[in-house]
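Q: what sequence does this backbone want?
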């Protein structure tokens, strides 16, 4: 009986040792699986971050630049229209010395409305000239006197404002992109009657 009891004791100890070993192996396997899962999750997050950066750089960023360039082109067009209109109205500031319209005033007034298109060192006014342009001739203002198109017996002042966006884009790289759409410099023309020869 004593021998049998000893044998049972050894069997129980062996069984406990085997169970403990299996539990240890299971625990180790679970920990390893969790570590692998965590590493896999971190790698996936890293891949997603890289994909997002690439999509933003090559997809969203060019689109945002094109949208911003479109807004800037619209702003340029609005400035040209306002400058031509105000310049034509300023041509009415004439007296006996300028019966056919004050062209220098028309030019200077138009310049004030679109001065931001003339670069970092724009001129303050047109002086006694009726036209002006910046150094690279991408922004221009011209005021001329001629017969009115609708009635040859009347005199009109025509103020033309121009900006070449293809040659001087406000956002680098967008000039050639919008070249196919613009095809010509942005321009605005305003005409106003200043003198009627029938009334003289």
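A:
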């Amino acid at each position: 009986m004593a021998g049998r009891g000893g044998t049972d004791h050894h069997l129980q100890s062996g069984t406990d040792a085997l169970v403990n070993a299996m539990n240890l192996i299971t625990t180790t396997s679970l920990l390893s699986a969790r570590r692998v899962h965590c590493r896999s999750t971190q790698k996936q997050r890293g891949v997603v971050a890289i994909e997002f950066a690439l999509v933003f750089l090559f997809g969203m960023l060019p689109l945002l630049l094109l949208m911003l360039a479109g807004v800037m082109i619209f702003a340029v067009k609005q400035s040209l229209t306002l400058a031509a209109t105000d310049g034509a109205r300023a041509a009415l500031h004439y007296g006996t010395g300028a019966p056919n319209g004050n062209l220098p005033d028309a030019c200077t007034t138009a310049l004030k409305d679109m001065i931001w298109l003339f670069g970092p060192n724009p001129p303050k006014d047109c002086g006694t000239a009726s036209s002006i342009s910046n150094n690279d001739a991408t922004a221009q203002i011209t005021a001329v006197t001629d017969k009115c198109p609708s009635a040859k017996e009347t005199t009109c002042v025509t103020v033309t404002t121009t900006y070449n966006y293809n040659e001087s884009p406000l956002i680098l790289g967008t000039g050639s992109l919008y070249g196919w759409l613009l095809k010509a410099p942005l321009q605005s023309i305003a005409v106003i009657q200043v003198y009627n020869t029938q009334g003289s």
